[in-house]
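Lab meeting tomorrow. Please check the following:
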Amino acid sequence: MGRFSSLSEQTFRLQFLKGFDFMSLFISMLSGKESRERVLVFDPSFICKSGKHTYGLGRYWNGKAQRSEKGLEIGCLGSIDVADGTAYHLLAKQTSPNKTKSRIEQYVSMLKEQADKLLSISRYMAVDGYFMKSTFIGPMRKEGFEVITKMRSDGNLREVYRGVSSKGRGRPRLYGDKINLEQIDKRKWRKCYQTEEITGYERILYCVTLKQQVKVVYLEKVAGSGYEVLLSTDKELSGEKLVRYYRLRFQIEFLIRDAKQHGGLEDCQARDEKKLHYHFNMALGSVSTAKLTLWATLANKKEVPFSMRNIKLYFYNKYLTETIFTNLGLDLSCRKIARLYNQCLDIGSIAA
């Protein structure tokens, strides 16, 4: 930013030390749009970082390398626009390697701090299978959230007991027989989802891990014997919506990818906690801002995919072209020069 603006690098460095309420900013930006169906999404992301004195430096899971590596980790919180099928950034907070609190406890603490603001957006939160833990889902439910996640293929599910409880001593019976997920009895399941590749069946079952009744969707692959099991703590949520919400969860990963490739998410050389926090939210927020202002307002956005590369390249071309044309004293009121100016703006852009 110091290279392409009239402000010095020191100005930005000092600004990064100041605190800022990024959450309120991005929520206000989203509230500017009409009321839409939204789903919250949370996903940790590994950040490459060298050196020895950076705040939060430790060993974290790197999904790209499929192993734990030395670096940083941030918890990325976003909002999914269901109609547009895309994610917008809300808040990023760094994970601490402090062993007094587990990673799950840190994630829960982050979400609890923002619970009131988040519930104003949506009560549904989609997370991946790593968060299929009672230590995460229990506290989230107490805050008023309904969690959507993926179960293990050998998850412990049982039928809901519908019989009459005995009047003798002891706790009333909560569940019946265990569900064999490798070969379900489709007579007891209701078909809720159908594509050329997958058929979905829904049913309310008792989850032994969570010790509660949940809505389960069993996704069976048409070709082959593979299957997936999705879960929602909201028993009233339809199976079709459950599948749709969970699949939209992957949009947060595309947002993080764009921030790493084009937003400079991993390019910060700061070591201070406040500066890193400011940088991470600025990088992710810049992608969301570009998407919200330059793509979400298009009339034909269904036909034009969002490309952060094209947007970044357009403004770089604009800056370079205006600098050259101004120094050469070229008059843009001339039709031929104006045509050349417009051609320069699209150099290197990818066709939709």
DSSP finds ten helices and twelve strands in the chain. Residues 273-294 form the longest helix (22 residues).
